[in-house]
Amino acid sequence: MKNGLIVSKIKNGTVIDHIPAGRALAVLRVLGIRGQEGYRIALVMNVESSKMGRKDILKIEERAIEEREAELITLIAPEATINIVKDYEVVEKRKQKVPDKITGLLRCTNPSCITNNDPEAATKFKTLRKSPIELVCEYCETRITEQEVLRQILE
Ligand code: CTP
Ligand code: ZN
Q1: What does the domain layout of the chain look like in residue ranges?
Q2: Residue 54, phi then psi, degrees to nearest 5
Q3: What is the C-alpha to C-alpha distance for residues 85 and 79, in angstroms, rounded to an integer?
Q4: Residue 133 reports pLDDT greater than 60
Q5: Are 13-94 and 101-154 the same fold in CATH?
Q6: Any residues with Cβ below 6 Å from ligand 1, and which?
Q7: Angle between helices 67-76 and 146-154 (to 10 degrees)
Q8: Is pTM, for the whole model, over 0.90?
Q9: Closest residue by Cα to residue 133 from 98, 105, 109
Q10: What tens digit of pLDDT does each residue of 46-67 get?
């Protein structure tokens, strides 16, 4: 970072880097973190990035990111890098791929879709485009845009 670190390095935990500017709060939501859990977290928003112009960074101490969580993060931050930090060193750098199918998490926007009427039916979307994300419901073929994905995650 050109102007030096805004927040210090962490000892152990996860740094999610290269989040599109302004979306760090949505990433926290995907992780189910609302603040009451007690994790020590640094939220860095709208900082300069050579690759992205501006970006957000999320540092979460003593918290691992599960595979499923990493997949869901790609829906709103397809270029995100997940850095695992142990004893101040980055020991692993994960670049998650956007999954081909998304089950659960999102709702279909079509009120007559079976997933909105049968309580047993889980939503299932196929990925049409990865960045920005565009999904299609496997049951009724309704398309879901990135804007709708963000809206649902933040509501
Ligand atoms: N980081 C941290 N605490 C540490 C180590 C790293 O908060 N103990 C943060 C860095 O500030 C950076 C991110 O984790 O935001 C990745 O660190 P590093 O791999 O050292 O940075 P870069 O090489 O710039 O990463 P990339 O190549 O992915 O852009
Ligand atoms: Zn549907």
Answers
A1: 13-94, 101-154
A2: -130, 155
A3: 19
A4: yes
A5: no
A6: 9-10, 15, 17, 57, 59, 81, 83, 85, 88, 90, 93
A7: 120
A8: yes
A9: 98
A10: 999 998 999 999 999 999 999 9
Atom 10 of ligand 1, nearest CA residue: 9
Ligand 1 centroid to 125 CA: how many Å?
A: 33
CATH topology assigned to domain 101-154: SH3 type barrels. (2.30.30)
CA distance 5 to 8: 6
Query: What's CA 115's distance to the chain center, in Å?
Result: 23
First-last CA distance in the chain: 32
Fold of 13-94: Alpha-Beta Plaits (3.30.70)
The Cα 23–Cα 85 span in angstroms is: 22
Does the interface ipTM go beyond 0.85?
yes
Distance 96 CA to ligand 2 centre (A): 26
Chain position carrying tokens 């009451």: 36
Q: Which residues fall inside 5 Å of ion ligand 2, going by CB?
A: 108, 110, 113, 137, 139-140, 142
